[in-house]
Amino acid sequence: MPVFLRKTIAVLASTAALVVGIAPAAEAAPRVLTYNSNGAAEFKAVVDEGAKVWNDSVKNVKLVKTTGAANITIVADNGWPRAQPTTLGNGRVWMGRQAVDQGYYPPRIASHELGHILGLPDIKPGPCSSLMSGSTGGIPCKNIYPNASEKARVEAKFRPSVMATGEWNNQFVDAG
Which N-terminal stretch is annotated as signal sequence (predicted)? Predict the structure, then answer.
């Protein structure tokens, strides 16, 4: 068989495989969300830790630090920690000193509040193994990682087909 004919058959077979779904499709790039923690005062390092937790835990979204305009603005204040998502992946986080002063673990607070920006609600009451159980996990709780269910929900919310249709419109705010 001539080389030209073999190459043509190989190209046609590859194209047919892609069309019918036999060959794996290229993985979509994650949605990149920027965060600015310039106003997070003494919590800047734990905010970075919280972002790393999510980056290590999910693949459909990636949190990237910036010093300019950002999807997520993080500040410190003397109140209770809270988040105000505006749309999926956008909003404001307050790293409240009140919970830290009561003994709650700052890296868990950061991961938890970023979870709200990523579309997760509070799960209260809940065990320490659930990141979104927040304060009901207890003061001794040091778990900073989302569980399998929480990871799956974030992956689903940021899958490319959802991002294209914009099917999200919820807000979650922590209360003491």
Answer: 1-25
